[in-house]
Specification:
By secondary structure, the chain is of the alpha/beta class. It starts with 9 loop residues before the first strand and ends in a 5-residue tail after the last helix. The structure holds uridine-diphosphate-N-acetylglucosamine (UD1). Uridine-diphosphate-N-acetylglucosamine binds next to helix 7 and strand 8. The site of uridine-diphosphate-N-acetylglucosamine has 21 residues, from helix 7 and strand 8.
Length: about 350
């Protein structure tokens, strides 16, 4: 009797317990990959593994590790040196906090990337996907932004770590000839998996718009503050390109496919991952109200420091080269975010 043994390709996901990382873990497992999650749990909870297990039937291998710790990082990567690629999400991401604690952001976000790159070279892991951000464009002169749009001086240390991260990878590509990398510049991820078993879990008062809206709808927050009503937009509020987190997660599978099959045109490629549509803050609030039947209490306040007026993507390059495009509507983003918040609060009543 002969046995056919199909060995799944192993992917390391740093920051895989977080919001985008956990959704990407699900999509990769469902696409047939074996997933190893590395996370220090600084902004995530271990129960996320239960959610991933419950959706996919697979519990990913989990390594609790802070990538800033050099020796421990080498040891964990050595254990998983049969991986074919790394998706590097692990990073601090609160814009306001980064202004207050720039050293923490540079140390954490840059040093962890440097350690990941060192491990990839040492253990000959060839494929890297890096979580970048539309924040690298700053306040763009022309909309929508393409990958050729010049980057601007970063508005925050967080934004600077994304710009520097892209540069560190580019420099490393000269030194490590077997490395191939793709940076994905995310626009504004919102929403949750349609099972409502994983979603966004901000600790404390949310900084971002969608979790603030869902918590206001549930009465956890009294009122949403709309930051700025005097922008030069159709209703005076700022414009962003909101993308469903599952669409965003799928972009990683497409990017990995491109790297793993060696179909990329350059050893380093950059893609905008957005829907190509910009919505104002008020349009998001009204879409949420339509999608959920819940009205949102809000007031207009002054602009938030560091916010740009408008940014949305031209995602044609990703559509063409990654054979990927965003599918979900703003209404679905809103309803899935709300369903997740309700499910989560069903077991956890108090907000911190
Ligand atoms: C920013 C970064 C993004 C980063 C994210 C991480 C830019 C262009 N984007 O997203 O790269 O990944 O932070 O946290 O720098 N708003 C309100 N009331 C609220 C919260 C937000 O009106 O209570 C408004 C904001 O002013 C903004 C929009 O909603 O106009 C979206 O804000 P948010 O969800 O915080 O995302 P960004 O700041 O766009």
């Amino acid at each position: 009797m002969s046995y056919l043994c199909i060995v799944k390709q192993k992917i390391i996901i740093t920051g895989g317990m977080g919001y985008i990382g956990s959704h990407t873990a699900v999509e990769l497992i469902e696409s047939g990959f074996a997933v190893v999650i590395i996370d220090n749990l600084s902004n995530a909870r271990e129960e996320v593994l239960d959610g991933i297990h419950s959706i996919t039937g697979v519990r990913p291998v989990f390594e609790k590790l802070d990538l800033v710790e050099h020796e421990k990082t080498l040891a964990v990567f050595e254990k998983h040196k049969d991986a074919i690629g790394v998706i590097h999400f692990a990073a601090l991401k609160a814009v306001g906090e980064s202004v207050a604690k720039p050293g923490l952001y540079f140390k954490n976000n840059i040093l962890s990337l440097v350690h990941v790159l060192e491990c990839m070279e040492r253990f000959q892991i060839p494929n890297l996907i890096f979580s970048s951000s539309c924040t690298v464009y700053g306040e763009p002169d022309k909309l929508p932004v393409t990958e050729e749009t010049p980057t601007k001086k970063a508005n925050s240390p967080y934004g600077a770590t994304k710009q520097i991260g892209e540069e560190v990878i580019q420099a490393e590509l000269h030194a490590n000839s077997q490395l191939k990398a793709i940076s994905l510049r995310y626009f504004n991820p919102v929403g949750a998996h349609n099972s409502a078993k994983i979603g966004e879990l901000p600790l404390g008062v949310p900084n971002n718009l969608m979790p603030y809206i869902t918590q206001t709808a549930l009465g956890i927050r009294e009122e949403l503050s709309v930051f700025g009503a005097d922008y030069n937009t159709k209703d005076g509020t700022a414009i962003r390109d909101y993308i469903h987190v599952v669409d965003l997660a799928k972009a990683h599978v497409s990017a990995l496919d491109r790297l793993a099959h060696d179909t990329q045109e350059k050893n380093y490629e950059i893609y905008n991952i957005g829907t190509g549509k910009g919505y104002t803050v008020l349009e998001v609030i009204h879409a949420f109200e339509r999608a959920t039947g819940q009205s949102i209490q809000y007031k207009m306040v002054t602009r938030r420091a560091g916010d740009v007026e408008a940014v949305y993507a031209n995602a044609n390059l990703a559509n063409e080269k990654l054979a990927w495009s965003a599918q979900e509507s703003l209404e679905t983003m809103c309803s899935s975010a709300y369903t997740w918040e309700k499910m989560y609060r069903g077991t956890e009543k108090s907000a911190t």
